[in-house]
Amino acid sequence: MRVFAFSDCRAFLLSIWLMTCGYVQAFEDPTQVAAAMSEKLLMSPLIAVAMAGERRVAVGQRGHIALSQDAGHSWLQARVPVSSDLVAVSFPSPQHGWAVGHGGVVLHSEDGGFNWALQLDGQQASRLILDYYTDNARGGALENAQLYIEREQSLIGYGGTQPLMAVHFIDEQVGFVVGLFNRILKTVDGGKTWEPWLHRVDNPNELHFYSLSADARALYITGEQGMVWRMGHDQASFVAIPTDYAGTLFGATSNGKSLIAFGMRGSVFRSTDEGVNWARIPVDTQAGITAGVFLPSGHLLLTNLAGEVDLSMDEGRTFSRVQLKQSMPLFGLVAGVDGNLTLVGASGVQRETMALAAIKARESSAVVDSTSDPMSTLLGAGYGYRH
Description:
It contains 3 helices and 29 strands. By secondary structure, the chain is mainly β. The chain has one domain: YVTN repeat-like/Quinoprotein amine dehydrogenase (Methylamine Dehydrogenase, Chain H), CATH 2.130.10.10. It is globular.
């Protein structure tokens, strides 16, 4: 049983996990307390953002979820039944979305992000895992069933619950959540029930999982020790495809032709053969790279903890720096078809409008125009009042 340590990913995880630990008060289980409405929501740390159709939905600390219906100009605060820190969000359709975070919580929205319900928490997940691997009609018949039972009992013995770090839904029914110590569960009924998949990942050392992503052919997990795991859409297990890197990978993105994995100390790796071979790509930063996205135009953007955005016009072979009007440690981004970017990070939400010039692909100055909109406003919190 591994002992949890921050040493291999402190730059990213400490910035997210410890930012909320500077206060002391009587303990209330955040999985049992609804998120408070906040007038400072847009200035509070937001960790991830996703598109729900044309709507943008951002999640962050203390159960805060905000949504924008006008490309990030204005935002509404959602109703959320927990105050756990939320670190990832996925919308497979404009109406149905899922968010995960500390306390092992899984939240579901069926109205485009306005209202959320708790589907699963860490204690329920632990009981589910123990039940699954002790049941001979299910996981109990597996060769390593007792090992999974002992590992889960050890984790419970440490106290608390294991956080979930990523979520990805293929459609409104089929989805995955992943977290620390090889934690992975799958649903095929929109989160009503979950099946442990600990035995379906080539991860004997229980490395932590930090991201989930997909392209038209496969799903990908990234995690500790430069590991990427791949599962084809016609397969039933994740196979390790290591990058030969010793540090943590925070995420991956793919357009179906180029698979880009990224993480600590400005590390970027590119594969054009579904992870069989990797090439390290130089990027002008030593900061942890936290998010990446292929734009509808085919361009690739990466964000990092130094508040920088890098752009590739050649599917990740080379990068140039985007000059932003504002800066903060960045954790996530999404892009609309109109070129409007929504960036989230340590200081909340930031809107950038980019125009990508039609210039030669070989020219490094591919970024052309970036204008910031500092006027994003919180229209209402809980629909009860205006600011």
